[in-house]
Structure formats: C-alpha cells, structure tokens
Amino acid sequence: MSRNGTSRSWQRNLDVWTLLLWVALCAVGLVAIYSTTHGPAAAQMAESVSDNFYRQLTWMGVCAVGIAIALMLPVRFFRQAAYPIYGLTLLLLLASLVVGTEVNGARSWLVLGPLRLQVSEVAKVGTVLAVAQLLSERRTKASAGSVGTALKAVALIVVPAGLIILQNDMGTALVFFGLVPIMLFWSGLPLHMIVLMVSPAVAGYLSLVYWPAAVVFALLFTAGIWYRTRQPSLAAIAATFTAGVTVVTSFAISYLLQPHQVARLVSFTNPEAEEFRQGVGFHLVQSKAAIGSGGWWGQGFMNGTQTQGAYVPAQSTDFIFSVIGEEFGFVGSLVVLSLLGALLLRVIRLGVDVKHPFGSIVAAGAVGVYLIHIFINIGMATGILPVIGIPLPFISYGGSAMLANTALLAIVLDTHMRRDDLSIYGY
After folding, report:
1. Residue 261 has what pLDDT?
2. Which residues of the chain fall below pLDDT 70?
3. Helix 211-229 crosses helix 232-251 at what angle (to 10 degrees)?
4. Other beta carbons less than 10 A from residue 11's beta carbon
5. Residue 184 — left, alpha, or beta (φ > 0 → left; ψ -120 to 50 → alpha)?
6. 340 — phi, psi (to 5°)?
7. What residues contact residue 312 under an 8 Å CB cut-off, 6+ apart?
8. Running DSSP on this structure, what letter comes out for residue 242?
9. What is the pTM of this model?
C-alpha cells in the first residue's frame, strides 16, 4: 500500500505544463520544417533534405518514448550513472575524431548502421550530469563554492569542449564554455568570480564589433574588479582576461586567420559590405530580409517570399527562426519566444523546488544549454552575432539535438517528480 501511495505521489508531482511546452515547441518546429520542405522551396532542395519533416516527426516520437522511460527510473540511477555516461561520451568524441563522418566541415558524426549521431550534442547530457554529481557529492557540499571545486567542474566541461574544437565545431564548443559560469553560479561560486569568467566573451565580442570599445571595457572592468574586491590578483586576472582577449582577437583577425574565417566572424557587423555580401554576408542579409518582410502578422504559412524562394540557407536548421518571422510575423515570433521563455522559467522553477543540489544543478545545466542555444541562434538570424551553426532547441531540425535536449528535460522532470527521494541518498 505504501508503495502504491508513493507511486501516486510521483505521478502527482509530474509537471504536466513542462511537457505541454515541450510538445508546443516541437509542434512549432514541425510546422516550420514542413513549410520549408513541402512548399515551393522543396523544388530546389535535395531529396534528402525534403524528408526532414518526417525524420523530425520520427525523432519526436522516439523522444516521447525516451521521456516515458526516464520518468520510470529512480533518481539514484542518474547519480550513479553520471560519471560512466560522461566517460562514454568522451570515448564517443574520440571515436568521432578517428572514424567520424565530416558534415559541413565538422567531424562530429558517427554513423551507426542507419543511425547518424552527432556526438557533440549527446556529450552535453553527460557533461551536465557529471558536473552536477561533482558539485553535489557529500565531500564537496561544504566547499561547492570553493575555487578548487570550481576548477574540477571547469575541467569536466573543458575536456569535451576541447575535443569538440578538434572536430572543428567551434559553435557547439561555445555552448560548453557557456555552461561554466551558469552552473558554477548556481552551485554557489561568488558573483565576482562568475563575472570574471564571462568577461572574456564580452571583450571578444566587442573586439569584433569595434576594438576601441573593447579597450574601454577592459579598463573599466579591471578598475571595477579592483574597487569591488581590493585584491590585486583578481584585478590582474581581470586585465588578463579582457585586455588579453582583445589583443589576441585583433591579432588573430589581422595575421592568423584565413580570409574566409575572418569573414565568418566579422561579417555580421556589416553583411552588405562588398567583401561579404557574396558569401556569408549574403546569408545574413537574406535572413534579416525574411524576418523584416514578415511584418506584424507574417506572409502566411508556406507563402514566405524569401523562404519559398530558398534564398535563406539552412532554413530548417540554423535559420529556422527566419522562417517563423517571415511567415508568421512579429506576433508569431513573439509567441515562439514566449514559449521558449516559459520553458526556461519552468525548468528554473523545477530546479528551485528540488532542494538537493544534484537535481537543482542539473536543472541549471539544462537551462544553460537551452539559453545559450536560443541566444546564439536568434542572434545569428537577426544579424547581431556571427554565424556559427547553433540550432534552436526543439524547433530546428536535428535528431541528435532533439534527443540531447529532450534527455536533459526528462532528467529534470524525473528529479523534480521524485524530489522527495533525494534525501534518502544524502548530499
């Protein structure tokens, strides 16, 4: 009787709203993918691309089954399997370097019979679990905010990120680096340490847009850290992180990188310039034109001029937001952003409800993965960030990304549903 009562308690704890948000976002993605693969644009696509809608629908079904399976597993399973899963993902990353298939210049894919798996996506799940387990272990709870523990967590994140860089997939590697400040902040690392970790990204971005602004930022940031902490060592680190990144970025653009690499990094600042508009700048111009032409209500389903003319590249993957903006307008885009925002807030709420650090840090990792993807993908489509090939969670076509993102969500749902069990296993 007690067991049945516990089972019913688990079922009552299942957050149905999060599941409905997952379904809604997947449905939005299916609608947009169908438009790009079954409208007039389909005539200009390869047959393999025209099947994206049906493959995505199949992956959604697979993920739905995966959610059901994950919800039947005890929380102890994910804690005990965290390090083995992490180790397995590292082995898969190494395997993809040796025998992987190259797609769009990145050797990130393993072909396993009829299945083609992007290992770098799956590695996000193993990394989030391993970092959450490290930061929630009994021996580290008292020192979760210590520098030593933080460095161990950073190492767990940097190792797969480094392997992914070797695969020539810098976009996905950036997601891993972005997890560092988010997960460590949630685990209790002081705010000024988190700001230090974020500062190189800000300095690098300003260096691409307007390098004098990066210099001013480096000076003000270093002065601010000194004023806040009165620690010369931290001020020196701040200067190294910001001024160092500014110098390295400027030097690399001027002397190290090839012209096509420079164009990929800086074309977003002026995509219509002569040197860019025939290459990657053309993609940005078309994406912005598609979004702008949508107006308030859009041109209608399967009626987008840019979309159906196949002017926008990677319409069902990296630039799917431009399809939504053109065919459903500002209102449709706002609805999609609202759904994504609601999902982020819901996962944060689930993490807060789970008092055990493992469950809450897994939720923070999931939010981090989703937030970074959303920010970069929409930034690419609207022309405020470089084009680095990042999908929009649950909306862009991609079975591996759908599987990894759904797996994180399923684990968060399970830890929240069984949150009363976590106290049994201790900190």
Report:
1. 67
2. 1-11, 46-48, 138-147, 260-261, 275-279, 423-427
3. 170
4. 10
5. alpha
6. -65, -45
7. 283, 286, 287, 290, 306, 319, 322, 323
8. H
9. 0.90
